[in-house]
């Protein structure tokens, strides 16, 4: 089948999509956007998190066909023309990135959290990011990064 | 100097940002599962459903006839020696007449779409005859046990004897302990891309911990000389030991050579649980004899590791479990037996902490028991018995640099404690969290302590080295260093450290890290907490060689001797600036390659286990604070604080990151992480059923870093990555014991262990 959707502001299409393919597969293998990650492909780890029509979803759990006509934003779409998003900048500067495989999902989830709640408490951060697994950091520096991004957002 | 300035400078001791950080936050960093090639096809693996079976026949005809399928391969298609293995060549790349564990690779398919390949693989007909499976390692050496490997079921037996052979003591404590099977659970699945070069060779882009040992193994199976199989490090999504053994490497190469097409393989999470080795489950029996005051007189240990169906690194894990298995204590008389055996369970091998993790749960539990028996507190009993510099450990090796056990354990004791439970405002901080299982009723707080020590680098006589090539040249009028090693960056930050060392030694600002591949000599394994030490040592030595060459060149050009390099200036003996680097180098590049070996280690005596087995020791201590809902058996770790001696922190921020991440993995084993194996079959190969700590599970972690330089190591560094994974779990277990009064002789601790 053929799918058409908007990804990171651009109209995109893909042909010969097998009905069983996930949005994650279509993004990674058909649209040249491998930033969203495939750590579990069963909705447990959050590494594939993208926005679909403004709502964060596990793209591994969305069939590619379900994204027909929808608007998708991936990690590749977070940075603006003037550089990294404050969330991306904070993750780099706080040492929240080690292997980085969980990072794209954390970035989208954090971006969504701060859009909803610009000054989250620690328990709110933990709850919002509970669906994203990280195996490298023990999460301390991820918390630092989220706090730093919130603080940067408050100042801007 | 402010932290901003140090970040910009980026020499050793600073914490410059990792050079791949921006790529990793923009989604542009190319992990091994992200690779793509024109005309590539997808490879999948057919695996054994049985823990032990004879293969009578394999019929691939229906699979081959599937539209879109390019190749279906079995062991009959292997051109070279059909054997792989890190320490013993005991595992077929593709099964021959017998499968020895559930998940053993049997056949491969390449097709135009991964789903086509998966469906074709299901059409392969394998005629299995199930055989009796050996699934209890405690029976592995019985006379009537099924034979897993033709040479018998013993992988290695190690005896350590020291001091009085028949010691007695006024106070004797003993216990049996059991540790479950832990998974590395790196997030980036096993994956890579094999690309034929059209001339009978290929390039393999893969996530791994040691390119050169992979290359040896690939070449052996494919019957290729090393220059025909070039390995390149693709982006690695974590490793933790699980990428020391081969996974899809040989399989993708076989398919690529057979089809003449680029082949990508990428495991699902379920396949990943079958596609790499795990941490050995262990059964441990310990006994301590001590004075009335709690000073150890003797220690005995009997340790059994389940190696599973193939040896992997079981030999070395037994080495560590035996030589380090009594912990960082000064013990006059010692009697240790450690064994690793074959079974039809999943193969086990390397994971962060490597043989010490299992032992630490036992010796630390017993140390607490001794403390209680003699009426000494858990901190002071460890300080009393802790190793000191100048002591000899249980293999008789002199501890010839800092061994600050007493300082570490007292340091964690003195760190601020979290607020008491009554002040807790948020239900999410209680056991059970937002599940709303308690508002504080039935919740008891406990505090536990543990210490450990771990060898750094490869041991027991292994010639452990790394190779670095450093090039210095002028680019755009500015000196630029390029550092090329094959040492795998798996997320820990080695590339940052390589840059810092080049900046420090050569005074340059710009350092390019060359892509990691086999076009330079081996960097050794990214394991055993060794890369900052060994590859760091190699990069330092290569920089020194470059510096000497630059000064020799300068001396020739300037006609002056006794020069030194100060930043980018060539300075005379009297301190006069004679030239800048750009003038001396002009269009010339200075390049040096150095193979750097750490000081030798030696095999232990086969009878007594005595010898200088290890190159360096790293020490850490943890304090865990837990709240336990004793009615439901739920545990909330409230604080997990640690102190560790890192010798010299090359990158202090990265050191803390390693310690926090390592602590989380140790906590995971104490509380939740276990591959459940029943009758040789894995019951929970998914992140739904195999749980790793989330951000809700992890507590705040205070980290106190001590820096007692090791005079024998480059810059005084001491390996960092593993100790926190060893001491954190036992501290958590101790804290739960303190809260519940339960003995808890098995990890992970489950709710029923607390409530029943």
Automatic annotation (TrEMBL), chain A:
GO terms for molecular function: 2 iron, 2 sulfur cluster binding; metal ion binding; oxidoreductase activity. InterPro entries: 2Fe-2S-bd (IPR002888), 2Fe-2S-bd_dom_sf (IPR036884), 2Fe-2S_ferredoxin-like_sf (IPR036010), 2Fe-2S_ferredoxin-type (IPR001041), 2Fe2S_fd_BS (IPR006058), Beta-grasp_dom_sf (IPR012675), Diverse_Oxidoreductases (IPR051452). Coiled coil: none annotated. Residues 1-78 form the 2Fe-2S ferredoxin-type domain. It holds the Pfam family Fer2_2. Keywords: 2Fe-2S, Iron, Iron-sulfur, Metal-binding, Oxidoreductase. Its EC number is 1.2.99.2. It is an enzyme of class 1 (oxidoreductase). PANTHER family: OXIDOREDUCTASE WITH IRON-SULFUR SUBUNIT, XANTHINE DEHYDROGENASE IRON-SULFUR-BINDING SUBUNIT XDHC-RELATED. This is Carbon-monoxide dehydrogenase (Acceptor).
TrEMBL record, chain B:
NCBIfam families: pucD. Residues 415-439 are annotated as: Disordered. One of its GO terms (molecular function) is xanthine dehydrogenase activity. Keywords: Oxidoreductase. Coiled coil: none annotated. It comes from Pseudonocardia dioxanivorans (strain ATCC 55486 / DSM 44775 / JCM 13855 / CB1190). This is Xanthine dehydrogenase. The lineage of its organism: Bacteria, Bacillati, Actinomycetota, Actinomycetes, Pseudonocardiales. Residues 26-132 form the Aldehyde oxidase/xanthine dehydrogenase a/b hammerhead domain. Its EC number is 1.17.1.4. It is an enzyme of class 1 (oxidoreductase).
């Amino acid at each position: 089948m053929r799918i058409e959707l908007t990804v990171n502001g651009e109209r995109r299409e893909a042909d010969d999509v097998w009905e069983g393919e996930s949005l994650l597969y279509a993004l990674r293998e058909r649209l040249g956007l491998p930033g969203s990650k495939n750590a579990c492909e069963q909705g447990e780890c959050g590494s594939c998190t993208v926005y679909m029509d403004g709502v964060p979803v596990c793209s591994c759990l969305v069939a590619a066909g379900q994204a027909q006509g929808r608007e998708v934003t991936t990690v590749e779409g977070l940075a603006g023309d003037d550089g990294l998003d404050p969330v991306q900048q904070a993750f780099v500067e706080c040492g929240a990135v080690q292997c980085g495989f969980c990072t794209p999902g954390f970035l989208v989830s954090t971006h969504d959290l701060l859009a909803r709640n610009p000054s989250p408490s620690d328990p709110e951060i933990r709850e919002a990011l509970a669906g994203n697994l990280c195996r490298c950091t023990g999460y301390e520096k991820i918390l630092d990064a989220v706090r730093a991004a919130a603080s940067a957002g408050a100042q801007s | 100097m402010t932290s901003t300035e140090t970040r910009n400078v980026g020499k050793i001791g600073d914490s410059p940002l990792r050079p791949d950080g921006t790529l990793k936050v923009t989604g542009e960093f190319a992990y091994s599962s992200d690779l793509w090639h024109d005309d590539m096809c997808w490879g999948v693996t057919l695996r054994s459903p049985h823990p032990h079976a004879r293969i009578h026949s394999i019929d691939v005809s229906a699979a081959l006839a599937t539209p879109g399928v390019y190749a279906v391969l079995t062991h009959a298609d292997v051109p070279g020696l059909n054997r792989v293995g890190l320490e013993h060549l005991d595992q077929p790349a593709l099964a021959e007449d017998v499968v020895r564990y559930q998940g053993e690779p049997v056949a491969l398919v390449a097709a135009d779409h991964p789903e086509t390949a998966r469906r074709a693989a299901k059409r392969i007909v394998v005629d299995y005859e199930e055989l009796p499976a050996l699934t209890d390692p405690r029976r592995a050496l019985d006379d009537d046990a099924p034979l897993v490997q033709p040479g018998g079921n013993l992988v290695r037996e190690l005896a350590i004897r020291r001091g009085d052979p028949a010691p007695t003591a006024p106070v004797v404590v003993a216990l049996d302990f059991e540790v479950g099977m832990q998974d590395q659970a790196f997030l980036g699945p096993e994956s890579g891309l094999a690309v034929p070069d059209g001339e009978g060779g290929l390039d393999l882009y893969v996530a791994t911990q040691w390119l050169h040992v992979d290359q040896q193994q690939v070449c052996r199976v494919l019957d290729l000389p090393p220059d025909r199989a070039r390995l390149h490090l693709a982006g690695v999504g974590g490793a933790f030991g699980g990428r020391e053994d081969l996974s899809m490497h040989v399989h993708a190469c076989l398919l690529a050579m057979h089809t003449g097409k680029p082949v990508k393989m990428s495991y699902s999470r379920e396949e990943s649980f079958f596609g790499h080795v795990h941490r050995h489950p262990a059964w441990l029996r310990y006994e301590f004899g001590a004075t009335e005051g709690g000073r150890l007189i003797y220690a005995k240990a009997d340790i059994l590791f389940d190696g599973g169906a193939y040896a992997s690194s079981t030999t070395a894990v037994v080495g560590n479990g035996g030589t380090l298995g009594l912990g960082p204590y000064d013990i006059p008389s010692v009697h240790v037996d450690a064994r690793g055996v074959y079974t039809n369970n999943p193969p086990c091998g390397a994971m962060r902490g490597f043989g010490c993790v299992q032992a630490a749960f036992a010796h630390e539990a017993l140390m607490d028991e001794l403390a209680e028996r003699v009426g000494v507190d858990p901190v002071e009993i460890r300080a009393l018995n802790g190793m000191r510099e100048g002591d000899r450990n249980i293999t008789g090796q002199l501890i010839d640099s800092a061994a600050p056990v007493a300082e570490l354990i007292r340091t964690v004791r003195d760190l601020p404690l979290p607020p008491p439970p009554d002040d807790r405002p948020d239900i999410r901080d209680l056991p059970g969290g937002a599940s709303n299982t308690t508002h504080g009723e039935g919740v008891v707080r406990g505090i536990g302590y543990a210490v450990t020590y771990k060898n750094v680098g490869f041991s027991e006589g292994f010639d452990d080295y790394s190779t670095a090539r450093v090039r210095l040249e002028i680019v755009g009028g500015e000196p630029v260093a390029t550092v090329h090693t094959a040492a795998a960056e798996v997320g820990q930050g080695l590339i940052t450290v390589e840059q810092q060392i080049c900046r420090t030694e050569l005074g340059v600002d710009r350092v390019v890290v060359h892509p990691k591949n086999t076009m330079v000599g081996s960097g050794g394994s990214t394991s055993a907490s060794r890369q900052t030490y060994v590859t760091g040592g190699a990069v330092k030595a290569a920089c020194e060689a470059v510096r000497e060459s630059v000064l020799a060149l300068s001396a020739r050009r300037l006609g002056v001797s006794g020069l030194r390099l100060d930043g980018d200036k060539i300075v005379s003996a009297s301190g006069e600036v004679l030239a800048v680097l750009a003038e001396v180098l002009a269009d010339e590049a200075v390049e040096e390659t150095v193979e750097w070996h750490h000081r030798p280690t030696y095999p232990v005596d086969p009878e007594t286990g005595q010898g200088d087995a290890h190159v360096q020791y790293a020490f850490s201590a943890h304090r865990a604070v837990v709240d336990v809902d004793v009615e439901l058996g739920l545990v909330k770790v409230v604080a997990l604080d640690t102190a560790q001696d890192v010798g010299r922190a090359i990158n202090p921020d990265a050191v803390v990151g390693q310690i926090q991440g390592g602590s989380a993995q140790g906590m995971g084993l104490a509380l939740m992480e276990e591959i459940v194996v029943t009758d040789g079959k894995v019951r929970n190969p998914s992140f739904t059923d195999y749980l790793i700590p989330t951000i809700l599970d992890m507590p705040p972690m205070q980290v106190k870093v001590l820096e007692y330089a090791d005079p024998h190591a480059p810059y005084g560094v001491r390996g960092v990555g593993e100790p926190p994974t060893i001491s954190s779990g036992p501290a958590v277990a101790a804290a739960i014991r303190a809260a519940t009064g339960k003995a808890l002789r098995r990890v992970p601790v489950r709710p029923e262990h607390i409530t029943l």
